[in-house]
Every structure is written in structure tokens, then in C-alpha cells.
Design brief:
539 residues; alpha+beta; 5-stranded antiparallel beta sheet; 14 helices; 18 strands; 20% strand; globular; binds the ligand Nc1nc2c(c(=O)[nH]1)N[C@H]1C(S)=C(S)[C@@H](COP(=O)(O)O)O[C@H]1N2; binds molybdenum atom
């Protein structure tokens, strides 16, 4: 050190790849936090989420499917509630991917602009990174009913990247100032500068993400205020008089709206403004039409009790829920729309780019296919498809667009969003039975009986029989509770004579027409999970 001081050698400081990565990351942490806050308070997208949503749409289906399977698998292995946390996990991944990419860009920038960056190279960096990113964001927000204006979203993205790029190149210039390069003394200055930079970044990050925490924590549960307006708050379920009481610990027969599962291709659900939104009816119809939500609510409503499930749900998973849907049967609308004889299908399109085809034969023969705007007596929640979604009996959720914005009468069929991505063409719901509880306390009345209970569901095909097998015993028939409707799950119960020790309980069900469920264990992809429900318990 001393010899260096006495004979200063002008060894240039190379702003290295790693220092670039570090500086870029330091800048990104606070910027991302501020970006998130801005997106919460203004009608702006959060760029990392938009990028992720875009990737999810353009990457090959099998890759996405494998990714989802892996994520659900890991979460289940960790004992995490998939329905609650899957989105949080995806959001974390989105922020990681975004910061990762821009950190890499910063590192490459430092490595390339070895000596001294100019403000022009900073601008160049911002454009190289910002323009494609802005296009991506513009593309993914580019739909009519959504709350974001695509052009504003794109410009906002560009601005974000510009701030990052400008700061990055400013730091790079500061680090490579000629006087900084020339003497070892200045190395201390350089180090101090990095410390200042780190300190400032850390402060803004803490404040920014603290703000994020406050926003997220303080956010009121959507729809919390409509508690009393809910249908279920004022009415008894249609099967309230059913003779069989579910075993204690069985899932709620009717799912509370806040517990209803959510699955879709968006990191944050698309927000549709009711005033701006219109349902467009087009294609092979008398003339293109538009309907407001008020128009749709004006039709005589139809109510149906429905159990919906995601095709990704493993046997016993929590991606299935039940509530009362309100809407208008599509078949009643066909004449008013003037659907032409040559039309064979309706293509239903959503604001998020999701779409599916429904055959007009199905619609004409099944009044239950409906456009739904309310659940449990109140408007659909944003996350569940506000303002409009479709119901198609007997098929998984992947066939049933939420946030509908267009219906086009067409004379050709095409695979829908998830069918294109290698999932089953029909996606008919599988018959499955699940054990929810082996209640460890003997039931009252009967001496030493252990109530075992759960649900069975076979789309719209009904459940005629449920059987239980304990250890190596014979199959025995469980009791069935009358379901709320032909399209909901059926709760069952089996009171088992208690013997202490470790036991395995297995359940199987039979469809309405007596067809036995598939016992072979198959994963959700591509046609829905099959296999017996089971539970191992020490009593
Ligand atoms: N517009 C749109 N609709 C969609 C989806 C989507 O990603 N976008 N996902 C589908 C899938 S896979 C399922 S399982 C159901 C889930 O509905 P829920 O979130 O209300 O439970 O929505 C369906 N409708
Ligand atoms: Mo799904």
C-alpha cells in the first residue's frame, strides 16, 4: 500500500460485469418498490407482472404446464394452501424474473462500456431494454374493457426503464471519473460512493416496500362490505331439510365468496370498469350488437347452484368451490342476436386474451349454459370475472371464460386457450371422491363410532353411491346427503366402529348412472386427476 502511495500507478478501474450487476440490483430494489406503489395508486400496470403475464401467454404450453405442476407440487409438499398462495408464489417469481433480467442488462452494460459511459450510451441502454419491454406491456394490456390504457402503460414502462438506465449510467460515469481512476487514494472515495449508493438504495427500498406492506396489509378484502347483501346471508340452502348431517370437519357445503378458489392466467385480475364495459356480439349475427351490464341484468334471471373445479386440481386439492350463480341462459339470446343458420359455435373472448368455443348445438339443447353476472346474490368479484362469465355444465373451469368482452358467432371450431396448450379438448369433469375428515371424537349417540366424511362430485352427472374401505376390509356404503342441485358436489358420511391404531381410509364414488369412478391414479395433466381419495390416521 505504502509503495503504491509513493508511486501511484494509473491502473484504470474497470467497471466490471459483477459491479454492474450489483449497481443495477441496488437501483432496481427501490425502483421496483416505487413502481409497485405507483401501480396501486394510479391506473398503471406493474411492469414485472405485465412481463410475466406476457411470458405466460407466449411460452410453449407444455413448459407453462410443467411450471404450474412443479409450483403446485412444491407448495403441496410444503403443506401450503395452494388456492391461497399460488398467486403470491407466481408474483414473487415475476419480480425475480424482472429484476434478474435488468440486473443482467446492467452487468452487460458495465462490461461493455469499459472506460467511460456517456449520457448517450445510457440512453441507448434504456431504449434497447425499454422499447421491447414497453411493447410487451402495451401488448398485454391492449384490450378494450381493461382499466389500463395500453399506450399510457407502454409509456410508463419506457419511463421506468429510462430512470433506471439514466441512474445506472450516471453511477458508471461517477465510478470511472478520470480523477477516480488516477490514484489509489480515490479508491477510498469510490468505495465510499458505493457505500452511499447502497445506503440510499436500502433506505428507499425499506421505505418503498414498507409502503407496499402497508398498502397490501391495509387493503380491504374485496366485497367485505356486501356481507349482508349476500344471498346466503338471508336464505336457507335448497337442501336445508336434508336428513343427513355432515360429519364434523367436513368442508363447508357452500363456499364463502372470500374462500372461493381463483385460477387464471393473470398475476393480478383484470379490472374492468362497469361504465366503460360492453359485451360485443358479432360475427354471423344479424348485425353487431353491444350490451351494457344493465342491459344484461334486465333479462329474467336464472339461478343455479354449481360446483366448479380447475382441471389442475389434484384429487383432494382445494381448487374447487360451490356457490349460487345468477345469469341469463344463452339459448334465450340467440334469436334476439339473429344468429345465422350457418353458425356452428360461439367464440367467447375475454379482456385478458383468454377464449373458448361453445357449440350452438350444446347451447340449444342445454338451458343451463348461461352468462353469469352474480354469485351468491352479489356482483361477481373482480378476481372471479367481473362483470361477466359463462357457465357450461360438466366441464372444468378451463372451458369457462371470465371477464367476457366479446361473443362471436362463427362457422368453424378452433381449440380454446388451454386446449391449444395441450390440455384435454373436452375437459369433462372427472368423478372424484375426497375424504375431508376422520373425526377423532366418537359421535354422540352411537357408541364409539368415528364419523368419516367428505364430498364426491362428477360434474353434472350426479353421484349415486359412495363407498369406503378401511384397511384391508370390504367396500362399505356411505350415506349421502341430498345435494343442493344436480350440478353440485354431494356430501357423504360414514360412521365407522372405532378400533385404536393406525388406519387407512379409502373412498370411491359412482356417477348418477352407476358408472364407477376411475381408480387409477393419474395426474391432472392432460384430462383431470383421477384416483381414489384416501386418508391415513392414528386413532
Ligand atoms: N378470462 C379468463 N377466464 C378464465 C381463466 C383465465 O385465465 N382467463 N381461467 C379459467 C380456469 S383454468 C378456471 S379453473 C376458472 C377459475 O375460475 P375462478 O377463478 O372464478 O375460480 O376460470 C376460467 N376462466
Ligand atoms: Mo383451471
Amino acid at each position: 500500500m505504502v509503495s503504491n502511495l509513493s508511486a501511484p500507478s494509473p491502473s484504470p478501474v474497470r467497471p466490471s460485469f459483477w459491479r454492474g450487476a450489483w449497481v443495477s440490483l441496488l437501483l432496481l430494489l427501490p425502483l421496483t418498490a416505487l413502481g409497485y406503489l405507483a401501480s396501486r395508486f394510479m391506473a398503471l400496470p406493474f411492469v414485472p407482472f405485465s412481463l410475466f403475464d406476457w411470458l405466460a401467454r407466449v411460452l410453449p404450453g407444455p413448459l407453462i404446464t410443467a411450471g404450474i405442476d412443479a409450483l403446485v407440487g412444491v407448495m403441496r409438499a410444503l403443506g401450503l394452501p395452494v388456492a391461497d398462495l399460488a398467486k403470491v408464489a407466481e408474483q414473487t417469481l415475476a419480480v425475480t424474473i424482472f429484476t434478474g433480467l435488468l440486473t443482467l442488462a446492467g452487468a452487460v452494460f458495465f462490461a461493455l462500456t469499459r472506460n467511460r459511459a456517456s449520457s448517450r450510451t445510457g440512453l441507448l441502454l434504456s431504449l434497447v431494454v425499454g422499447v421491447p419491454l414497453a411493447l410487451v406491456v402495451w401488448r398485454v394490456t391492449g384490450s378494450s374493457g381493461a382499466a389500463f390504457d395500453p399506450r399510457t402503460a407502454g409509456l410508463w414502462t419506457l419511463l421506468f426503464v429510462l430512470v433506471w438506465g439514466t441512474l445506472l449510467s450516471a453511477v458508471q460515469r461517477r465510478l470511472t471519473r478520470p480523477e477516480t481512476r488516477s490514484s489509489e487514494l480515490e479508491a477510498g472515495d469510490r468505495r465510499r460512493f458505493m457505500v452511499y449508493l447502497g445506503g440510499a438504495a436500502a433506505t428507499i427500498t425499506v421505505v418503498g416496500w414498507g409502503g407496499v406492506g402497508a398498502v397490501v396489509g391495509g387493503r380491504r378484502e374485496e366485497g367485505a362490505e356486501d356481507d349482508k347483501a349476500r344471498w346466503s346471508a338471508n336464505n336457507a340452502l335448497p337442501n336445508a331439510g336434508a336428513a343427513l348431517e355432515p360429519a364434523p370437519g367436513t368442508r363447508p357445503e357452500y363456499t364463502a365468496l372470500e374462500d372461493y378458489y381463483r385460477i387464471d392466467i393473470n398475476l393480478t385480475p383484470p379490472v374492468v370498469r362497469e361504465g366503460k364495459w360492453r359485451l360485443r356480439v358479432e360475427g354471423l349475427v344479424a348485425e353487431p350488437l353491444e350490451f351494457s351490464l344493465t342491459d344484461i341484468r334486465a333479462y329474467t334471471p336464472m339461478h343455479q347452484f354449481i360446483t366448479m373445479a380447475c382441471i389442475s386440481n389434484p384429487v383432494g386439492g382445494d381448487l374447487t368451490s360451490t356457490t349460487r350463480w345468477t345469469g341469463v341462459p344463452v339459448q334465450r339470446l340467440l334469436d334476439e342476436w339473429g344468429v345465422q343458420d350457418s353458425a356452428t359455435h360461439l367464440r367467447i373472448g375475454s379482456v385478458d386474451g383468454f377464449f373458448e368455443y361453445v357449440s350452438l348445438d350444446d347451447i340449444r339443447s342445454d338451458e343451463r349454459i348461461m352468462l353469469a353476472y352474480a354469485w351468491d346474490g352479489v356482483p361477481l368479484r373482480v378476481r372471479n370475472g367481473f362483470p361477466l362469465r359463462v357457465y357450461i355444465p360438466d366441464v372444468y373451469g378451463m372451458k369457462q371464460p371470465k371477464w367476457i368482452e366479446s361473443i362471436e358467432a362463427v362457422d368453424s371450431w378452433e381449440p380454446g386457450y388451454w386446449v391449444k396448450r395441450s390440455w384435454d379438448r373436452e375437459a369433462q369433469m372427472r368423478a372424484t371422491a375426497v375424504i375431508d375428515t376422520v373425526a377423532p371424537t366418537p359421535s354422540e349417540g352411537g357408541a364409539n363410532l368415528v364419523p368419516v366424511g367428505g364430498m364426491a362430485h362428477a360434474g353434472a352427472r350426479g353421484i349415486s353411491r359412495v363407498e369406503i374401505k378401511v384397511d384391508d376390509g370390504a367396500w362399505q356404503e356411505a350415506e349421502l346427503r341430498e345435494p343442493m342441485s344436480d350440478t353440485t358436489w354431494t356430501l357423504w358420511r360414514f360412521d365407522w366402529p372405532f378400533t385404536p391404531g393406525e388406519h387407512t381410509f379409502v373412498v370411491r364414488c359412482f356417477e348418477g348412472d352407476g358408472t364407477e369412478q376411475i381408480s387409477e391414479r393419474r395426474p391432472p395433466h392432460p384430462s383431470g386427476a383421477t384416483g381414489l381419495g384416501s386418508e391415513r390416521t392414528r386413532l
